[in-house]
Each structure stands twice: as structure tokens, then as C-alpha cells.
Amino acid sequence: MFIQQLINGLTLGAIYSLIALGYTLVYGILRLINFAHSEVLMLGAFIGLGVLTFFPAAFQAGPLGLTTVFVLSMLGSGVLNMFIEKCAYRPLRHTLSLAPLISAIGISIILQNAVFLWITNQSQTFPEIVVPTNFSIGPATLNSLQLVILFTSLVLMVLLHLFIQKTKTGKAMRACADDLEAAALMGIDSNQIIGITFLVGGALGGAAGVLNGMYYGSIKYNLGFLPGVKAFTAAVLGGIGNIQGAVLGGFILGILEVAAAGYLPNGSEWKDVVAFVILIFVLLIRPTGILGEKIAEKV
User: Looking at beta carbons, which pairs linking 148-152 to residues 24 or more positions away fall under 8 Å?
Assistant: First the structure.
């Protein structure tokens, strides 16, 4: 029972970690909570559904078809996130910090209602693109869908780590996260780096949207709200702005949520409450999160 719950928790946590990385990347540079990220996640899922609907050959293409679905969803979500940054956040960058936050909430509402009005307000079945196969691990069972989710998430996390640590653009992103103004004085095009950050964060959100659709089997115009809130909680739990913290927080939250559903009386009804309890507890006890560091205020 414990091993099975652990496997289920790691699978769910992998999705939360990908979403949390999108939040933490943007916050690390702009100190902005991109609340529209949950809708980017939702649109990534709809892009994936659109690819599978209009190009049914992706069903028969095996790993290549699945990769194509992910690439197109990530590309579409990333470009959308860049467009959001350019139109809704960049003009407000030097205003009061509350203005970009309100803009982010406004964009979230606009995107959600755009899908509601112009695409569909009904749940859509997400095609079963992974042939279900079960593997026994002692008393527990690991299915092929869980393997795909875990493998895809870990590959994307490793690629992000290598991109941030080894590439010139990644080093520029780290410099901007340390001090945006100083990085600009050293010749780094901050607008370009911020745009790339939104592109990468949106791409991860798009991938998470496809994984979410595969995991639950359906998608809807408001599917991004709960996963988005939970992933934000995971980012805060791990240390908002810290990439490793976002991954750690996502897995911890996934395991705790599944454990609550499995072990608490009427746990399935209480599992969504776990994220909010954790968020309040972390903010009260350790506001910087597990791996977060206290940032000195500039005078």
C-alpha cells in the first residue's frame, strides 16, 4: 500500500514540479507571480488535443508521435507566454508592484473565458495515446502512463538544469536573477532574457498540460486553476525562485496529497485542502521555503 501510494504521489508530483518551475523561473527574475501560467497550462493541453484531433496519425507514430505532440504544445504555450509578457507585463515593469499582479490576474481571466466562449465549455476527453501496460513492483503496480509522465518530467527537468547551468543564455538568466539592473549594465539584453524565461516557463507549462490531460483523461477550460494553485504552493514550499526547490516542493506536495487521499477518512474529499494547509503552514513557519534564502531589501 505504501509503495503504491508513493508511486502515485511521485507521478502527480512530477506534474506539479513542471508547473512550479514555470512560476519560479519568472519569479526568480522579475519577482512577479505569473498567475496566467495556469491558463498557459490549460492552453497547452488544448493544443495537444488539437494536434491529436487534426493529425490522428500521431496515434500510430509511437514515441515519435508523442514527442511531436509535446513539442508543438510546448512551442505554442511558450510563444503565448512570451506574448503575454510583452503585452501585459513589460509596459508595467517599472510601475507599482501591484499593477503587474493585477494584470496577471486579468490575463488569466481573459484566457480562461476565451476558451470557454470560443472553443468549448464542456469537458473534452483526452485521447489515450499511451497503451496501458502494468508492471509489478512487489505488491505495487506501475503502469506505462506513469512511466511516461515520470520519464518525460525528469528529462525536461534535466534539460532545464543543463540549459540554466551550461549555456550562455542560462548564465545570463542567472545574472538577471541576481541583479537585473547590474546585468543590464554589463551588456545583457534584459528584455530578451526575460522573454526567453517566459518562453521556457510557458513551454514547461504546456508539457505539464499535456501530461495532466493524459493523467486524468479529460481537459476543460478551467483545468489550470487547481493544478496552478497547487504548483504555486509547491514553489513556495520549496523556495520560490529556487529551481531545485520547485522540483522538491512539487514531489513533496504530490506525495502528501496522495497520502491524504489514501489514508485520511474521506481522503478524496480532503486531498485538495492539503495544498492550502501546507501553504499557510509554510508561510507561518518558514516563508522562504525549504531551499529558499532570505533576500536583503535594497535601500
Answer: 148/66, 148/214, 149/11, 149/14, 149/15, 149/211, 149/214, 149/215, 150/10, 150/11, 150/14, 152/70, 152/207, 152/211
Q: What is the dihedral of CA 56, 78, 227, 25, to 10 degrees?
A: 150
Q: How far is it, in rounded angstroms, from Cα 172 to Cα 193?
A: 7
Find, among 198, 7, 188, 196, the residue nearest to 84 by Cα. Answer: 198
Contacts of 110 (CB under 8 A, 6+ apart): none
Q: Are 249 and 234 in contact (CB under 8 A)?
A: yes
Q: For the chain, what is the domain count?
A: 1
Note down the domain range covering 8: 2-224
Identify whether 210 is part of a domain.
yes
Q: Are 140 and 68 in contact (CB under 8 A)?
A: no
Identify the residue whose cell numbers are 514553489: 235
130: left (phi over 0), alpha (psi -120 to 50) or beta: beta
> Does residue 256 belong to any structural domain of this protein?
no
Closest CA to 204 of 79, 18, 25: 18
pTM over 0.90? The answer is: yes
91-149 pLDDT per residue, tens: 988 887 788 889 999 999 999 999 999 999 999 999 888 877 888 887 888 999 999 99
Whole-angstrom distance, CA of residue 122 vs CA of residue 168: 44
Residue 89 belongs to some domain of the structure: yes
Kind plus residue range of the DSSP H or E element containing 59? helix 57-60
How many other β-carbons are positioned within 10 Å of the β-carbon of residue 272?
Answer: 14
Q: Would you say residue 261 lies in a domain?
A: no
